[in-house]
Design brief:
Largest sheet: 6 strands, mixed
Strand content: 5-15%
Number of strands: 6
Helix content: 25-40%
Radius of gyration: 31 Å
Number of helices: 7
Length: about 250
């Protein structure tokens, strides 16, 4: 059995010794629909059910391992252990009761590090599983064979994070390429980018215009142009007032 050095070991017995061996070929991420720490997940598996996952992850990034990754765990339905002896590594992560919230930055970091370790230790290929028994990475709702009666776990927000941040982060860190979780969010803009932004600022569409007017490209004046026009008009009006005042003063003196 294999134990991840980045996790606290909370070994479940007798499951850890009694359950059959697997050859791990997949990593599947879950949400447990409870705001629990890794230790509380362990206590739940130990005291309340005969099911379990390999790992549990709290909101703060506290990661616990309950069973070695070369021993079957029971969180993935048909992917727990297939007839050929292959099976999936499972991780349950803290979430709200409806598993609708996103993973925290601390959770994302631990998911990525665990994924890199699983790739290097067990040869899990750096791809999203193409079928329920295809080696790679996935999330619980990806295939019905992974969940009894189907599931929405780990929730839409986390599925989006898996696709855009977590899995790309695993690949990037495992291959030494740019890690999307570590990129500087401030990027230099080219002059062309600046010109495009300026153009968009000057092209606010009138929100009350009808569709026909919008199609004709009717736009409200840009704010800078409006100020310039107003200043010009006021200056011209002031000049006229000054001229009229001078004429009146001349007539009075005459």
């Amino acid at each position: 059995m294999a134990w991840y050095p980045g996790a606290t070991r909370y070994e479940l017995q007798p499951e850890s010794d009694a359950q059959p061996a697997i050859r791990p070929t997949q990593v599947i991420f879950h949400s447990i629909a409870a705001p629990w720490t890794a230790k509380r997940v362990y206590e739940y598996w130990r005291d309340s059910t005969n099911l379990e996952s390999h790992f549990g992850l709290g909101y703060e990034g506290d990661l616990g391992q309950f069973i070695g990754t070369e021993t079957r765990a029971d969180a993935n339905y048909q992917a727990n252990r297939r007839p050929d002896g292959t099976g999936a590594i499972s991780l349950e992560s803290a979430s709200n009761l409806e598993h609708t919230d996103p993973w925290t930055p601390a959770q994302i970091e631990e998911l990525i590090k665990l994924g890199v370790w699983a790739h290097k230790t067990h040869g899990i290929p750096l791809r999203i599983c193409r079928s329920w028994d295809d080696p790679g990475f996935g999330y619980h709702a990806l295939y019905p064979e992974w969940a009894v009666s189907g599931t929405a776990c780990p929730g839409a927000a986390r599925i989006a994070q898996f696709k855009s941040v977590v899995f790309p982060g695993i690949v990037a860190r495992a291959t030494g390429k740019t890690d999307p979780t570590k990129e500087d969010p401030v990027m230099a803009l080219s002059q062309q980018d600046v010109d495009r932004v300026a153009l968009r600022v000057l092209e606010y569409r009138n929100p009350t215009a009808d569709e026909a007017s919008k199609k004709l490209g009717r736009r409200i004046p840009d704010f800078y142009g409006y100020v310039v026009q107003t200043f010009t008009a006021v200056t011209a009006l002031t000049a006229k007032v000054d001229k009229l005042t001078a004429l009146l003063n001349e007539k009075k003196e005459a």
